[in-house]
Design a protein that fits this description.
mainly alpha, 18 helices
């Protein structure tokens, strides 16, 4: 029986790896859109020039700009068009897989093969989660315009500025922050606090809404713990929150941050009151997204990951961070609320909540894993209950596998349809007016700069 279970798990994991490879190949047909072109144009004189350009003219978030330059800007300027967008898309997905695997206490040094399979499974799940939501929420032939799962799926497939600056940057920042809090190798108080301080600065140098949300969540958690008693954890949380907010404050030393806020900021009392009045709608959107099909799929994916044995079993865990899922949900809630306020004061967009969607995805997946771990850790389960649980596990594995394959096929259809149009001319996405293509003058000018540099290099 044990051999049959291992064989079945091996087949399922092989399918996940196969779907991951399939998406990897399809991603080479992705093409830039909107800001992607200008990221590429800024790097025709090299990545360092691109970094300086954005920090001088349009952003004060050094870490987000760095990931955008490395994963989107430089590749588009220097590599074939079929590879450049793929790099950012794949890097963002792998970053999600890496931070999730770390929070599940997977370590390459101890189990490199299992950890690799875990990262690939989570990455594949992230690639298809919103396509799965699109499939579950829309009937065949329905117009997807207005469907939130479809909108986010299109953004995360085609807009590499968001993948590199919001998904990859937020994931890698959370990975560093998680390492600074959880790493067993930071044994002394000094090394621990140095690591937390540096990681917190990195978080502060990502998007402002994400950074402020993480800091706010740390302060709220620390306050709730302090109501009972102060502890080492509360001091570390407060120190990290100060470090994050210091990173946000220092980001305004960059001319790009001042240029962006000066161009968009609204400072009147009426604008502030409007932002405060809109914050409840952020709560409503958060509730809607938490209760959505992509979140349910992420939860089921967590059940599958735990059932297949690529995540540690309860007996193998040292001190499982059971509070992580709750913290991620709290930080995601603050992301949605703060986004409403920032939208009124400076400017807003659905893409600013992408780190919040990411944290919801991770929280749901971790809760799915935790459920299986809880059941596996109980010694008093009757044979009947164990049988029912085994049947449910099998059904969930088959269902998630089928949805993953369907999601990958729908993703390919979206990539293919835009790539065909793109080769003939501008390829804007119907219904997403905030994602311009080369028909817009500012985008067309950036594309001409890229083409001119490519011709000169030949």
């Amino acid at each position: 029986m044990a051999g049959l279970k291992r064989f079945s798990a091996g087949i399922v994991l092989a399918i996940f790896v196969g779907v991951f490879g399939y998406i990897l190949v399809q991603s080479t047909r992705l093409r830039p859109i909107a800001d992607d072109y200008c990221l590429g144009a800024s790097a025709v004189d090299g990545p360092f020039h691109s970094l300086i350009f954005w920090l001088t003219n349009w952003s004060g978030s050094p870490f987000s700009v760095l990931t955008q330059v490395l994963f989107a800007s430089w590749p588009l300027a220097a590599l074939p068009i079929g590879i450049s967008s793929s790099i950012s898309f794949v890097a963002a997905g792998l970053a999600v897989g890496l931070v999730t695997a770390y929070l599940l206490q997977a370590r390459w040094a101890n189990a490199p093969f299992k950890t690799s399979l875990l990262v690939i499974s989570v990455t594949t799940g992230w690639f298809v989660s919103f396509r799965v939501g699109q499939v579950l929420e829309l009937r065949a032939g329905d117009d997807p315009i207005g469907n939130r799962s479809w909108i986010v799926a299109e953004i995360l497939a085609h807009w590499q500025t968001v993948n590199s600056g919001y998904v990859a940057a937020s994931s890698l920042a959370m990975l560093l922050l998680g390492w600074s809090f959880l790493s067993p190798y930071l044994e002394s108080h000094r090394s621990r606090y140095i690591a937390i301080g540096l990681a917190s600065l990195v978080v502060g140098w990502t998007s402002y809404v994400f950074a402020a949300s993480v800091a706010g969540a740390f302060l709220l958690v620390s306050f709730s713990i302090r109501l009972r008693e102060a502890s080492v954890l509360t001091r570390r949380l407060e120190f990290s929150a100060v470090g994050i907010l210091s990173g946000v404050a220092t980001s305004f030393l960059f001319p790009g941050a001042r240029a962006r806020t000066d161009a968009n900021v609204g400072s009147s009392i009426d604008v502030l009151l409007e932002g405060l009045r809109n914050t409840p709608s952020g709560l409503g959107e958060w509730v809607s997204d938490v209760a959505s099909a992509p979140t349910f799929f992420a939860f089921l994916l967590g059940v599958v990951v735990a059932s297949l044995g690529v995540a540690k079993r309860p007996s193998e865990l040292s001190s499982p961070p059971q509070w992580v899922s709750g913290f991620l949900l709290l930080a995601s809630l603050l992301t949605y609320i703060l986004n409403e306020l920032v939208a009124a004061l400076i400017y807003g967009g659905l893409w600013h909540t992408v780190p919040g969607r990411l944290m919801i995805f991770m929280a749901a997946l971790l809760m799915g894993v935790s459920l299986v771990r809880l059941i596996q850790s109980r010694d008093s389960i009757t044979t009947e209950v164990a049988t029912v649980f085994s049947v449910l596990q099998t059904l969930i594995v088959v269902g998630v596998l089928a949805l993953t394959v369907v999601g990958a096929v729908v993703l390919r259809a979206s990539i293919d349809s835009r790539q065909v149009v793109w080769e003939q001319g501008p390829a804007e996405i119907r219904g997403l007016t905030f994602m311009d293509d080369r028909e817009a003058e500012w985008v067309g000018e950036c594309w001409r700069d890229i083409e001119g540099a490519r011709q000169e290099s030949q």
